[in-house]
Amino acid sequence: MSTPAPIVYTVTDEAPQLASASLLPIVRRFAAMAGVDVVERDISLAGRILAVFPDSLTEAQRQSDDLAWLGELVTKPEANVIKLPNVSASVPQLVAAIGELQAASYAVPDYPEAPATEAEKDARARYDSIKGSAVNPVLREGNSDRRAPAAVKAYAKCNPHSMGTWSADSKTRVSTMDAGDFRSNEKSVTLDGDATLSIVHKGANGETVLKDGISLPAGTIVDATFMSVAALTSFLDEAIAQTAQDGTLFSLHLKATMMKVSDPIIFGHAVRTYLAPVFEKYGEALAAAGANPNGGLGSMLDVIDGMDNGAEIRAEIDAVLGQRPPMYMVNSDKGISNLHVPSDVIIDASMPAVLRAGGKGWGPDGAEGDTNCVIPDSSYAAVYARSVDFFKQHGALDPATAGTVQNVGLMAKKAEEYGSHPTTFEMSESGTVEVRDGDTVLMSHDVAAGDIWRMATTRSEAVVNWVELALERQRLTGYKTVFWLDETRAHDAELLKMIRPQIEAAGASDKVSVMAPAEATTDAFETIFKGENTIAVTGNVLRDYLTDLYPILEVGTSAKMLSVVKLMNGGGLFETGAGGSAPKHVQQLVEQNHLRWDSLGEFCALAESLRFAGESADDLALKVLGDTADDAITKLLGEGKSPGRKVGQDDNRDSHFHFALYWAEALAAQSDAPELAEKFAPLAKALSDKADTIREELKQGRGEAVDLGGYYRTDPAKVARIMRPSTTLNGLIDG
Known about the structure:
Blueprint lengths: L6 E5 L2 H19 L5 E5 L2 H8 L13 H8 L6 E4 L7 H13 L14 H11 L7 H4 L2 E6 L2 H9 L14 E3 L6 H4 L1 E4 L4 E9 L2 E11 L4 E7 L1 H18 L2 E4 L9 H13 L1 H14 L7 H8 L5 H14 L5 E3 L4 E2 L9 H10 L3 E3 L5 E7 L6 H14 L10 E5 L14 E3 L4 E7 L2 E8 L4 E7 L1 H18 L2 E5 L5 H16 L6 E4 L1 H13 L4 E5 L1 H16 L6 E6 L4 E4 L6 H11 L7 H18 L2 H19 L13 H18 L4 H16 L1 H8 L17 H8 L3 H8 L1
Helix pairs in contact: 1-20, 1-23, 1-26, 9-10, 14-19, 15-18, 16-17, 21-22, 22-23, 23-24
């Protein structure tokens, strides 16, 4: 038996960060009693901002670059990281965080929308390294094994969540481009040898190197493509007209966080097109005032309110909105529409919500209605289109009888990071973009000004590991296993050339199949409607989409998923589920002192992390600690101790207490590790004996407004008082 490596617990943002203030002391106490340390590393948005601007801060304010530290750790076999959801910042979120830090006397620079000086360009480059999904590609040095834990799935079957009613005559549809988009223009090659690539734009004024020095090993798949802005604008015009004709809501579904360069630009074109008469009349004035539609209608309105003719422009906007079809609303009570903030409507959360609600969305009148789900790029739009078609024909999924769709996702080595890498560009002029290996042109595209061009890479070692993981899951489960790949798509065709020989060599050709995503979607629903199970083996983007889609339909949320990343060099990364609803949870806590965030994902990740620590150190006590955490999860669900939505019901803090109680009781009752039973018996008895007092103390102050001392940079002392209100529980855990 060797000394176990510490478990690294990430400090993130919003509701998960607040929940950690309550849960982490419990985790530390239990882990310490089994001989393992739990340490924190800050990858919150505010923490990452401070980490990249040490020269702007005092010595006391400076913060270590914990993301870089973690990036090194995940390449080592001793890595054991529990990763909570973090903010993948859109520009409005980034600007808000900067403002909050500045107000708290952190002298970080403003976010330069149009950098001109060298200092502004430097600041913009640092901020761009933080925007979007900057954390996950650094940490995910392995591929994804994601599924609903057995206890969660069993509970959902016995306690099915509500589902909307689908009708065959629903007007809800998915609209997507059929030409000129990323899917249509994609080209892909596999490198025969090591290469150092450059991206060059050839225009009327000569050549411009957009990016060079891109070193890639042999066997890397390189993709390049672009979206035509002319085709995009034409499509958006048609989609708006179709929405008006159908009498439905207009809803735009993008991924402006993960695809942090491309999708905010697409979002901006949607705002421009929807408000075309406003931009025709006031476009120059809006641009001069800094009203950028890429940041959404909400940030534009903030700028407009400060303009001399702001009231006039506001009136014009209202007039145009009155002529357009009504928009899908994020919050109809507050007038926040689908086009207000790019990060408010993220496709992997917003589309499952529509599908779960029977194809309905909320309109500006506060009523539900059918909606035109506008997904400009057609790469994966068919997944949602087939989902809509299936539910119209068969009705809603029944969680009480449904099987499950597990996922094995390709994501190691930044595989398929479309639209978020520094190899995505908005064209400043027309011309030709070439991907070159020295003097050899590997791929080229003719582009126009405003077009969005991007390149992505997928390394062969990541692909090999992905296939191995998929075949391992198939062997362990015996489930139907499908690779969601389209032979008619350039990238997928290159992937298939690589994986088919590996599957054949493993003797697994009769155990797995390949289907294009559209057909695979229908097949997956047919499978789970029969109560059977399947494994979807997908690329990175589909991994992101499907690990929200199916959990939300099957178990009501993706926050309760078990996500294990087997790091390629032997370590473990344990992710805790999605955090898309976290902002609403924070708002409710501030207004009512009720946090409905469910830490079940953290509980599941913790159990896996402890078992991994036990296996790595050959330590039975840690394995038992993980197994009994699972026992506690099962009892927690069975006893109905998950957080409720309303004040007066149990919330996150109550759930943590019951998890600790049930965990301690399970440890005290087990016989595999007698020394642990002896250690935990007194704690289990004390928690049980004082349970009524603890529950009463936890309820103190519920329904009252609270002050966190900030949103992106909260005050630790204030948060501790709010999230740990029971002095009795604190004494037992801290003592």
